[in-house]
Design a protein that fits this description.
alpha/beta; Rossmann fold; five-stranded parallel beta sheet; four-stranded mixed beta sheet; 8 helices; 43% helix; globular; binds guanosine-5'-monophosphate
């Protein structure tokens, strides 16, 4: 059995990563979503164990000490981390795993899992990005300004990814990401085993 795909979606604050990921999971329920742990307070409507595992700073430090994270980062004063345990297990079982994390965390995952699929979501324009961050409304004026400035710096990191997808509408972005996933599943490098099985030892080609 081939290993599953690690699909990582990142992008600057306000590019709509969360909404896009929810729709992908609704359309592709076979994908395993990796729920992150965070020290931030739950927002209205969020449930522990659904959007995040909401844990204390003490617990977070304990998880770091126990090497329980694939990566973790401080984002806008709160800590966020990707628990490692389920990810390896699912990938080894051939299941595809989706991570939605910030740009610092994504760069760390790229180093650890080079054969992952790295997708960077872009806002259609800077004006639109500012509007989206403001609409979210849960920000103080200082934190809003901080988010917009760091969003601009983050966008420049898009060059490090394999794919960029403009989130002009959720439907368009989701369709593109689904196509990327299908194409990645068909890559020769991920299908060596089936090629070998079908051709047998006599027809093996080195590399
Ligand atoms: P929010 O608090 O709005 O849900 O998320 C803030 C930021 O943290 C977003 O950019 C989100 O992608 C990022 N984030 C969520 N989970 C993780 C994680 O496990 N690791 C890292 N590095 N960032 C995360």
């Amino acid at each position: 059995m081939s290993k599953g795909l690690l699909i990582l979606i990142s992008g600057a604050s306000g590019t709509g990563k969360g909404t896009v990921c929810k729709k992908i999971l609704a359309d592709m329920p076979e994908i395993f979503y990796s729920i992150s742990a965070t020290t931030r307070q739950p927002r209205t409507g969020e449930t522990d164990g659904v959007e995040y595992f909401f844990i204390t700073h003490e617990e977070f430090k304990k998880w770091i000490a126990e090497d329980k994270f694939l990566e973790y980062a401080e984002v806008y004063g709160n800590f966020y981390g990707t628990p490692l345990n389920k990810i390896e297990e699912r990938l080894n079982r051939g299941e595809n795993v989706l991570l939605e994390i910030d740009t610092q965390g994504a760069l760390n995952v790229m180093k650890k899992i080079p054969d992952g699929v790295y997708i960077f979501l872009l806002p259609p324009s800077l004006e639109e990005l500012e509007k989206r961050i403001k609409i979210r409304g849960s920000e103080s004026p200082e934190s809003l300004k901080r988010r917009i400035n760091s969003a601009k710096a983050e966008i420049s990191l898009g060059r490090k990814y394999q794919y960029v997808v403009v989130n002009d509408s959720v439907e368009n972005a989701v369709e593109k990401i689904k196509s990327i996933i299908s194409a990645e599943i068909c890559r020769v490098s991920r299908n060596k085993k089936i090629l070998d099985e079908l051709t047998g030892e006599d027809f093996l080609i080195e590399n």
